[in-house]
Amino acid sequence: MVNQKVNLNGLQLKNPVLTASGTFGFGEEFTDFMDLSRIGGIIVKGTTIRHREGNPYPRMAETASGMLNAVGLQNKGVEYFVNSIYPRIKNFDTNVLVNVSGSTIEDYVQTAEIIQDLENIPGIELNISCPNVKLGGMTFGTSCTEAAKVVEAVRRVYKKHLMVKLTPNVTDITEIAKAVEAAGADSVSLINTLLGMAINAETRRPVLSTITGGLSGACVKPIALRMVWQTANAVKIPVVGLGGISSASDAVEFLLAGASAIQVGTANFIDPTISQKIAAGIVDYCEKHGFQSVKDLTGALIIEDKTTSCTV
Amino acid sequence: MQKNKSYILDLELVEIQQLNSQYVLMKFHDENKLPPMKPGQFAQVRIDGSPTTYLRRPISINFVDIELNQLWMLVQIVGDGTRTLAKAQIGTKINMILPLGNSFGIPLPNERVLLVGGGVGVAPLLMLGKQLQEMQIPVTFLLGARSANDLLELDQFSRYGNVFTTTEDGSAGEKGYVTQHSLLSTDVFGRIYTCGPKPMMQAVSAYAKKHGIECEASLENSMACGIGACLCCVEDTSEGHVCTCIDGPVFNTNVLKW
Asked: What's the pLDDT tens digit per position in B123-161?
């Protein structure tokens, strides 16, 4: 019997599989297809202090083994979440975390404070990495100073688990990770989407209304895996890995690279049951490879001497 | 409207008809009884074996043959994904999530209805026509295409109502667009259901608005998930951005910002 439990710096997960914000709605959209109690948690759609309409259509472009999106944090605001959505989802038999975003530090702080009062929300994921909004979002996540400021401010008021979601659109993600760790983050999740672009040659126009958008899906996995490995070697807080995870084998790779838990994102669109399958597949891997506990996979990557001479 | 439950099923391709160089009619069967599906709903079809196709393809439910337990899909070959799908061999199991989305509304008693379709957009109107006929509501179809060869399933449509056609080159029916058909100046309708290219639906909607006719349009916005999770397929409405996949695909055109 493999022990699947993961302790994410105080946040107890029944297994290491979470679903990534923006790819799993509020969980309700998936209950026709799967049993939410089979996964470690869900991170619900990005929530802001006020209602946001998001960006104009078109917001999506399919790419080779992936997709670009430019949704732009469409949501009905934190009050709507508290009054209308939370009552429907608070009794899910899994951890429900809320992804929190904002345009100013004050926005982040106020939203976090409101969510703190919700008994069944054990943590938030602070989104300082959205590439699709003009104000805030990624602008906080691309500077060590700005990232530290927003995390410090939220940390002062928010006492539950504080996960900080990092952007890959930086020169050195480990510097940002170290800055948010020092500012009080309980864990970091990475990567958010990579800034990309699509053009329709026939019409000579950009596909997305915003011209650029965030790339996700299987195509980003090698980049995400590399960044998770680098970050896990740079910080002491747990790393939650995401980026293109589409199978149990993908998930195991992230754990071996140093992640303590993983998130499944775009793959939910192709197979709405994939997160549940991945959770089961990680157990199969442990049985096959003689791991008593899923947490023992974290950082269990074997690196022979000859490979360490490569520059990283 | 209460959402009907959706399922992930592997349906077996049992028949494929090449209607012309651009369109195929695919018929699928399941050993278990197919779930209840309503006119206007769609399926998210997974396409294997096409490296450039990452996401599922939303495809309208064209018809459900209850006796044979068959689901029909009218597929327009647009890119790599639909090209690969159209080449599937008989007997192949195709994975799909269905049924998804809302459906066309029910007309008021004694309301005269007109079903206006263009191109592959005629697909959901066949099942709608059957439903209306079963409700003893007289059905009139007005179907438009580029040329005679692109008018699809006319034999099927004629089983459920009167069929009028237009073609842009005049090779069948009246020459011109659906909104130019003489039927619209000689007959009076209380409700129009439309599906097809956006400019056609916008013209139909404008005609309906001008004459005080209720109009419902089925939209074909590009989608990623199809189940309301990603918020990619939004349409701008009087209620703000709403998902075409779960709040649509059918909208009363009064709420659309057309």
From this structure: 999 999 999 999 999 999 999 999 999 999 999 999 999
Nearest chain A residue to B6 by CA distance is A32
Closest residue in chain B to residue A57, using alpha carbons only? B234
- Give the CATH number of domain B7-100: 2.40.30.10
SS (HEC) of chain B? CCCCCCEEEEEEEEEEEECCCCEEEEEEECCCCCCCCCCCCEEEECCCCCCCCCCCEEEECCEEECCCCEEEEEEECCCHHHHHHHCCCCCCEEEEEEEECCCCCCCCCCCCEEEEEEHHHHHHHHHHHHHHHHCCCCEEEEEEECCHHHCCCHHHHCCCCEEEEEECCCCCCEECCHHHCCHHHHCCCCEEEEECCHHHHHHHHHHHHHCCCEEEEECCCCCCCCCCCCCCCEEEECCEEEECCCCCCEEEHHHECC
pTM: 0.95
> Does the residue A256 lie in any domain?
yes
| Interchain contact B6–A (C-beta under 8 A) | yes
Residue A309: pLDDT over 70: no
Q: Express each pLDDT in A201-238 by its tens digit.
A: 999 999 999 999 999 999 999 999 999 999 999 999 99
A53 to chain B, minimum CA–CA distance in Å?
6
Domain membership of residue A146 as a residue range: 6-55+71-194+215-307
| Residue A146, domain CATH | 3.20.20.70
| Structure ipTM | 0.94
CATH 3.40.50.80 in chain B is located at: 113-218
CA distance B178 to chain A (A): 26
Q: Does domain B113-218 have CATH number 1.20.1740.10?
A: no
